[in-house]
Design goal:
Number of helices of chain A: 3
Largest interface: A-B, 14 and 18 residues
Shape of chain A: globular
Number of strands of chain A: 7
Largest sheet of chain B: 7 strands, mixed
Number of helices of chain B: 20
Helix content of chain B: 25-40%
Strand content of chain B: 15-25%
Number of strands of chain B: 28
Helix content of chain A: 25-40%
Radius of gyration of chain A: 15 Å
Structural class of chain B: alpha+beta
Shape of chain B: globular
Oligomer: heterodimer
Distance between the termini of chain A: 33 Å
Structural class of chain A: alpha+beta
Strand content of chain A: over 45%
Strand order of the largest sheet of chain A: 1-7-6-5-4-3-2
Distance between the termini of chain B: 67 Å
Strand order of the largest sheet of chain B: 3-5-1-12-9-10-11
Chain lengths: ~140, ~775
């Protein structure tokens, strides 16, 4: 499934970029994220709770940040698996100054799910992904404030 | 005039609309299914299945699961490697048969592939523990569509066969090149028959109990073929076949999906042996979606050659069969049935067919109601309609023109079959009368003027039933019956068939009641326990009555002879007659009833010459040919121009299945078959995404029809007895499904034909129709 969109953060580009590389900030901003621990350079182990329709479960996974080009772009790679199946996401985030002095973040990525979530929740996935991404940016905004 | 008791007894049971004797227990929830079986100390198995369609297994860690509460054992593919492979029963030249372990070893090939199994005190603990197993997968590229799998550079489902070809098959009859050279018109069409999920109401289930002291495995399983399961599972587990007892309690629907031998059947036997405890596994509905065989999965390319007067000269056909990841019992054989069925009921002298069976990272396909024949029937019936449209000939007329004529039977087809008997125009004419065809066409013309969408679809189908003579089937095509008259005079029939909704508990009793002159209520029909019933083949391919019933009939003939002999001794007259449940001396007029004779036969004070005591007879019947039922279905549809919704205004089914033992049961079979045909035509489709994930994995996403979605079915019949068996029956288990889908699609295409629409692939969802209404063809 392709996911793309954009969001405007009310902080300058440099700060926005830095924030999104900070595991503590990410841990707080990612919906359902229970723990995030560093296991290597730009690589983190993550426990994440997901609820999708009648399915819920904890995913064990990894978050990796790659192709860093501060303060303009980076790639975020998320992989997780758990009782409801697995999820894999790979997205490019591009930052640019917004008209209002904040930062426009444009994201473009591919999400793949498998197992029960694919069989049961496919129809809801698109909408759920959009909600989760929106929440993520809202929390980032709240953190910056 | 008052009816006497004797006259009531003389009334024939065969041909009567008797209510099914099996129904009271089935509809009151008191019947015994696999899940109803309880045993002391019984454990429950939960199977961990792959969430990936293609992946290498790097490692499996079962430590946490082993320590979980209530768990007595955990096994992975490494532990079961010595168990024999899940069997492939079909044989074709050059067939590539992947080794099919009962649990995955090193690699997984489809979502749902069993990877590990947990045995625990109850189902919940077993499932919880299965979730604690950690499998490290290395996902690899998957392919889920057969045409994509054939493209160069496609991921290889089995790395040893990078072209993904499981088999190819070629058949050529008549002179196809000449037919196409002489053709005045050639039409071509790509026609698909989508992947379907058979959806038996009762999912699969197995209970295994190993009695170590007797070295005996008792296996309860929901199957259509208990004896074949016994032979094959015994071989997989290296057990003596006569120390494996397969018991099939009530089966809540099969439709071909239980005409198989599954990994879980051998796996439960393995677990019972290893743990020393009885083990139960009941498939969940989600598992049923993922890992019980699917049906259909065809992409077909048709070319039809004809003369401008509508005479069909020949067909060229390429079938791309989605095989899935493995070859289950009959996977590779199913599309060869499509080739056999290709001529339909038309006189088509030249046919060339090529099949390519393609591996995909999906659940294997195999027999599903009709198994190969609905795909072919859909193809030929669509092509005939397209030809009619091309030549501007009425679809009923073009059919009448091409039917095999009544004086041509037995008729040899270009595909090598010998059609037994037929009167193809009879059901068509009857169905046309029922819908007032001419008037209906006028109404259609009026409706079109008013901008309304009214469609009339005709399908004149044929089918291959009573599968089948042994040379044509992988495991023997005969059937067996033992009939006993017990000392009390009660009659017991043991059939090698395995009825699971076909009603043979009633129809076989009707046959016996007539032959012996006893009451239907005195006849017990027994099946499905390999320790009780002589070896048999099973119930599938519309064979139960035509072959199993004939075996019963011949066993009864033997038995009647024996009854006459004992009667003659008792009556001290060699010239006796058996009628109305008694043997009568022609000399004295004295008679002895069947119960009196039975008592004497077991008491054996006086034996007739060269006669054993008792009244038992067994017959194994080998049919000389298939049978070939046929019929006409006409569907009248109205389409909502705003929403694309299809309303079936009339559904007329005129089926000819030869003589009918019980017309009520025949009608029931037609109704059920039509329901599944409508499911394929209008709503159902198993959808995998490009990565091999099954998107239609629940009843919320897979649109199996419900009662309120059914139209009123007007079921009628004509009767053309089969000369293949003495009962004159042909079979009707799959007719409804086979006749249905082309009638529905022809009807909707007919409705939309003013837009230039010539073909629509199933399912005909409102979305598809709505788009056509907006854009045209």
């Amino acid at each position: 499934m392709k996911i793309s969109g954009s969001y405007t953060l009310a902080v300058p580009q440099e700060q926005a970029y830095k924030m999104m590389q900070d595991p503590e900030v990410l841990a707080r901003a990612m919906p359902g994220c229970e723990t995030l621990e560093k296991i290597g350079e730009n690589e983190y182990r993550m426990k994440m709770k997901m609820v999708l329709a009648s399915l819920s479960g904890v995913f064990d996974g990894k978050v990796r940040i790659a192709d860093q080009n501060p303060p303009e772009s980076f790639r975020l790679i998320v992989e997780g698996s758990g009782r409801p199946g697995f999820i894999k996401g790979d997205g490019l985030l591009k930052l640019s100054p917004s008209a209002t002095g904040g930062t426009d973040v444009a994201y473009d990525g591919d999400v793949q799910v498998g197992g029960t979530i694919a069989a049961v929740g496919q129809r809801l996935l698109d909408g759920t992904a959009k909600i989760l991404i929106k929440k993520f940016f809202e929390k980032l905004t709240a953190h910056a404030a | 005039m008052a009816t006497t008791i004797a006259e009531i007894q003389k009334e024939k049971q065969v041909g009567k609309r008797l209510r099914r004797r099996e129904d009271p227990r089935l509809i009151t929830g008191t019947a015994t299914y696999v899940d109803d079986i309880q045993m002391e100390g019984m454990q429950y198995a939960a199977i961990l299945r792959s969430p990936h369609a293609a992946a290498k297994i790097r490692s499996i860690d079962t430590k946490l699961a082993e320590k979980a509460p209530g768990v007595i054992a955990v096994y992975t593919g490494k532990d079961t490697e010595k168990v024999g492979a899940v069997p492939c029963g079909a044989s074709l030249p050059g067939l590539r048969v992947p080794h099919h372990n009962i649990l995955a070893v090193n690699r997984v090939y489809f979502v749902g592939h069993p990877v590990a199994v947990v045995v625990a005190q109850n189902r919940y603990l077993a499932q919880d523990a299965a979730d604690l197993i950690e499998v490290d997968y290395e996902p690899t590229a998957a392919v889920a569509e057969p045409e994509k799998a054939l493209a160069s550079g496609a991921p290889a489902v089995h790395p040893e066969w990078p072209d993904n070809v499981a088999f190819t098959y070629h058949q050529d009859g008549g002179d196809v090149d000449k037919a196409f050279a002489q053709a005045e018109v050639i039409i071509k069409q790509r026609i698909t028959s989508q992947r379907l999920i058979p959806m038996a109401m009762e999912t699969r289930g197995v209970v295994a109990e190993f009695r170590a002291a007797d070295r005996q495995l008792n296996l309860y399983t929901s199957t259509q073929i208990p004896h074949l399961v016994r032979t094959l599972v015994a071989s997989m587990l290296s057990l003596d076949e006569n120390r494996v007892r397969v018991i099939t309690p009530e089966v809540g629907g099969g439709f071909g999906s239980k005409l198989n031998v599954y990994a879980e059947e051998a796996l439960m036997g393995f677990l019972a042996q290893k743990t020393g405890k009885p083990v139960k596994w009941i498939e969940s509905r989600r598992e049923n979606f993922l890992c019980t065989i699917h049906g259909r999965g065809h992409v077909d390319y048709y070319e039809l050659a004809a003369k401008r007067d509508g005479t069909i000269l020949g067909i060229k056909l390429k079938i791309i069969q989605d095989v899935g990841s493995y070859l289950q019992l009959l996977t590779a054989a199913i599309p060869t049935l499509s080739v056999l069925m290709m001529p339909g009921i038309y006189n088509i002298p030249s046919i060339r067919a090529d099949i390519v069976g393609v591996f995909t990272n999906c659940m294997p396909t195999d027999a599903y109601r009709g198994a190969g024949r609905p795909e072919a029937t859909h193809g030929i019936e669509r092509m005939v309609d397209i030809l009619a449209d091309e030549l501007n000939i009425d679809p009923a007329e073009i059919r009448l023109k091409n039917f095999v004529a009544n004086d041509k039977f037995p008729y040899a087809t270009a595909t090598g079959l010998m059609y037994d008997s037929g009167n193809y125009a009879a059901p068509l004419k009857k169905a046309l009368d029922m819908v007032h065809y001419k008037k209906l066409r006028q109404e259609q013309a009026e409706a079109r003027k008013q901008g309304k969408w009214l469609g009339i679809g005709i399908s004149t189908y044929g089918e291959i039933c009573a599968i089948g003579p042994s040379p044509a089937t992988p495991a023997g095509g005969w059937e067996s019956a033992t009939v006993k008259v017990e000392p009390s005079g009660k009659v017991t029939i043991m059939t090698g068939a395995c009825p699971h909704g076909q009603g043979e508990e009633t129809t076989f009793a009707q046959i016996a009641a007539d032959e012996l002159g006893v009451s239907v209520d005195d006849v017990l029909v027994v099946w499905g326990d390999t320790a009780v019933v002589q070896y048999g083949i099973g119930t599938f391919g519309s064979r139960g009555t035509a072959i199993g019933g004939t075996a019963v009939y011949y066993a009864l003939q033997d038995l009647k002879e024996k009854i006459r002999k004992f009667g003659a001794v008792l009556l001290e007259d060699d010239d006796v007659a058996l009628a109305d449940g008694k043997v009568t001396s022609k000399k004295t007029g004295q008679s002895k009833s069947v119960p009196e004779i039975a008592a004497a036969a077991y008491r054996a004070m006086k034996l007739p010459p060269n006669t054993e005591p008792g009244l038992v007879s067994t017959h194994f019947w080998e049919p000389p040919n298939f049978t070939f039922p046929f019929g006409t279905h006409i569907v009248v549809t109205e389409i909502d121009g705003e929403t694309g919704d299809i309303k079936i205004r009339r559904y007329v089914a005129v089926d000819d299945c030869g003589n009918q033992i019980n017309p009520l049961i025949v009608a029931g079979q037609v109704h059920g078959g039509v329901a599944q045909g409508l499911g394929q035509s209008l709503w159902e489709q198993a959808v995998y995404d490009d990565s091999g994930q099954l998107l239609t994995g629940e009843l919320t996403d897979y649109a199996v029809p419900r009662a309120h979605m059914m139209p009123w079915i007007e079921a009628e019949h004509t009767t053309t007895p089969s000369p293949v068996n003495p009962l004159g029956v042909k079979g009707v288990g799959e007719a409804g499904t086979i006749g249905c889908s082309p009638a529905v699609v022809n009807s909707v295409v007919d409705a939309l034909s003013p837009l230039g629409v010539r073909h629509i692939d199933m399912p005909l969802t409102p979305e598809k129709i709505w788009k056509l209404l907006r854009k045209g063809a």
